[in-house]
Amino acid sequence: MSELRVDARARIEAFELDARFTARPGVTVLFGPTASGKTLTLRLVAGVERLAGGSIRSGERVLDDGTAFVPPRDRGVGWAPQDGALWPHRTAREHLTPFTPDAIALLARVGLSDRADRKPTRLSGGERQRLAFARALARSPALLLLDEPFSALDDATRRQMGELVRAEAARGAIVLFVTHDREEATRLGDAFVLFESGRTREAPAL
Amino acid sequence: MTVRWVLPIVLVAACKHARPVTVGAAISLKESMDDLAPRLEKTSGRRVDFAFGASGDLASQMARGAPFDVLVAAGEEPRLAGVADDACTLAWNTLALVRRRGSAADVTWTTLARVPAGFRLAVGLVPQVPAGVYAEAALTKLGEWDAVAPRVVRGANVRAVLDLVARGEADAGIVYATDVRIRPDVESLGDVPAAARPDVHYPVYVAKSATADGRALAKLLCDDASRRVLASHGFLDRAP
Amino acid sequence: MSAFAVSLRVILPALALVAPLGAALGFFLSRARGALRAVVDALVLVPLVLPPSVVGYLLLVVLGRRGAIGALLERAFDVRLVFSSAGASVAVAAVALPLMAKASEAAFARVDRSLEEAAEANGLSASATFRLVTLPLALPGLGAAATLAALRALGEFGATLTFAGYTRSTATAPLEVYFAMQQGDDGRALGLSLALVAVSTIAAFVFHAWSRR
After folding, report:
1. What gap in Å lies between CA A100 and CA C8, rounded to an integer?
2. Which of B97, B101, B118 is nearest to B109 (CA)?
3. Which of B79, B153, B168 sits opposite C66 (nearest CB)?
4. Which residues of C touch A (CB under 8 A)?
5. Per-residue pLDDT tens for B190-227?
6. Domain A4-203, CATH among 3.40.50.920, 3.40.50.300, 3.30.70.260, 3.10.310.10
7. In C106-115, which positions are buried (b, 16+ CB within 10 angstroms) versus exposed (e)?
8. Do the chains contact at C184 and B60, CB–CB below 8 Å?
9. A85 vs C124: CB contact, 8 Å cut-off?
């Protein structure tokens, strides 16, 4: 995937989104206060919400332009939503096995190999976040969508996970990384999209 | 104070005064009773409510306390002993073998024992449907019951039997001769042979607890004018 | 108690059809939108709101020997549904299916959509999402739905009597209670009734257990 061009207009109840930016291989940080449209933008790129106007293109391919629509499963996306959306009936290992034969290796990368047979209720908040992150990584997707993926982690673990994000970017993935932690944004970001009340501004630095 | 209670008492008394006479009747009498109703009501000055069904069902209900003043059954109902008195016999009837009009069912009273395995003969449920009891008795007399019993399907009353035949769910059925004219899509294959003829008659029972109006109505049912109406529907005025 | 043996012979094939078909209908109703969904919903509700005897009558009109489909069944397969255990199963299925469908719809609707989104957006196919996420999460609700449908099937009376008739192979427990009472056999009527109460109570506990999972 060479670049992701987002020109997204959508409305959820009273909230109006008008997000325009281009993301290239590397980490693009979506930064801004709560309820400014970052999560909605990620959902639109993932394809679990539909555009009201505008378009989302990856390279030459139109993912969504109001008429044409590529379903989420065909977009080559890995998505870690804000609350994890883990499956309560499946163990940590079983969250990854549908996507990759190397589930254990992947669990080890996020430090969860000793939690492989636990279901989400028996994982701590931080462990759950790391599992959701691992699931998003499982298919080595070209487009990685991470919505505040490390908010419940301590500093040391957060940095470790950050390294994994940078590794994905280095391999050529386009990473959209939502955070409102300035330090994390600066540490990880190659490019920045600033959100305010549903509108965006691209910036090379914070 | 006393005035407040007068109105309800008057209303209740008026209701009791206008309470209809309840007559249970075998379902094969439905058309005849509907014909008789105006005359019965006019002469007695009371409304007459009919309840139609299988005589056995009605008699069971009456024996258990259902408030029928009169019950006209399609046969003797011994379970009414002690509950009702026998006023008269209203009419007689006979059995007919029927099939759906135009069907290919090729059967007669005497060939029933030889019907093929898939053949269905509709007969009333026993013991509550007198037409079923009569049919089994007739077939037993003809020596055919054991052979035909596996082919028998049951109707909850004689008109249900008629309906099964009319619908084609039964290839043939045994109903009363008077029932044949009720459904134009059904034709008779003959009345039951004289040798096997059961004594189909309609006793009129009067409840021991019947009101004077109820008793008077039973008398009306038993008179000549009523019997003429039944004759016009094909019922017999004596045993055949 | 051969009445219960007949009941089992009648309701088991009916439930074998109703459970998967009802669940499928329920899934469709929980996900679809638009005119087709409205039509299917209305059709599913009809047997639920009609009196059972009317359902039986309509079955008779269509599936009886002279009905449009019944005549075909007899001509092509030599199948006569009236007065047969298969006919009784059809009557039972007709009244149990709407219940299974609506209760299944509720079970599927209760599955958290965000869990399915997480599956789809990470690349699982529609069938894999259903198999690995939706169905396992809906299963307790589907079990409760099936228990409800089974209870309804066991107690079915009006449609069975009107369509399949009363004969050896259609004399289910509820029919036997009615006719035993008609014939004045109160002992049998009471015995069968108490047995039905016992079975229904046990099934109600099962339903409760499924619903709480």
Report:
1. 46
2. B97
3. B168
4. 112, 114-115, 117-126, 128, 132-133, 136-137
5. 999 999 999 999 999 999 999 888 999 999 999 999 99
6. 3.40.50.300
7. bbbeebeeeb
8. yes
9. no
